[in-house]
Specification:
It contains 4 helices and 9 strands; from the N terminus they run E-E-H-E-H-E-E-E-E-E-H-H-E. The chain is of the alpha+beta class. The strands form 2 sheets. The protein has a 7-stranded mixed β-sheet with strand order 3-2-1-4-5-6-9, with helices on both faces. Strands 7-8 form a two-stranded antiparallel ribbon.
Length: 205
């Protein structure tokens, strides 16, 4: 299945290009691989790929884009979204169930990796039949020490256990679905109080 991730590169106009990485969520390894000479995290610097990256940053929305046919990069060279805001990525592109990580890369190549949490409870409760996976989640920063994401596994385990418990309380009628989601968000805000947390919810009818 891979460890899917999205990578958002800041453009000169302040918007972002969004790219897909099939294995980029594994251990947040793209953090140390995205650099000016290897913008798509390839092992070998390439003038052609660097030129491709620079051209992509000037590509207008809805314009066609052609990338080099062969590369060793773990990040797809062809953007899936062009000239888009981070909020738009969070609401319309980031799949909180299937994308394990979300990276934001500034123009100066400062890389900020985030972990994602899906707020849907269909896998944790017998009473919830469906929940959107896009635009329905949270993403948070991870503390780093000497190039290692400290507590990443612990936090992901906490989130899994939290959803298991919340789903059980839903099935026992302790919560309704909206109260359960608010409880999840409250716990996430407490656990990430020293980090940066973004919550995305679907528009209410």
């Amino acid at each position: 299945m891979g460890h899917r991730a999205l990578v958002a590169y800041e453009r000169p106009d302040g918007l972002y290009n969004c790219h897909y990485s099939h294995w980029g969520g594994m251990n947040l390894t793209l953090m140390d691989k995205i650099a000016p000479q290897t913008p798509f995290a390839g092992q070998t610097p390439s003038k052609e790929i660097k030129r491709c990256f620079e051209e992509s940053l000037d590509t207008p929305r809805d314009a066609s884009f052609e990338s080099p046919p062969l590369n060793d990069c773990p990040i797809d060279l062809d953007p899936i979204e062009v000239a888009i805001t981070l909020d738009d990525i969070a609401f319309t592109t980031l799949d909180y169930l299937h994308h394990e990580a979300f990276y934001v890369v500034s123009q100066s190549f400062e890389v900020t990796p985030y972990r994602t949490v899906w707020l849907g409870l269909t896998q944790d409760s017998e009473t919830i039949e469906a929940a959107p996976t896009i635009g329905n989640g949270a993403y948070y920063t991870v503390r780093w020490y000497e190039g290692v994401p400290v507590g990443d596994g612990v936090m992901r385990g906490r989130c899994k256990a939290l959803k298991d418990i919340t789903g059980d309380m839903l099935d026992r009628d302790v919560f309704d679905e909206e109260s359960a989601t608010k409880y999840l968000i409250q716990k996430l805000r407490f656990w990430t109080r020293d980090e940066e947390l973004h919550v995305t919810r679907p528009a209410q009818p």
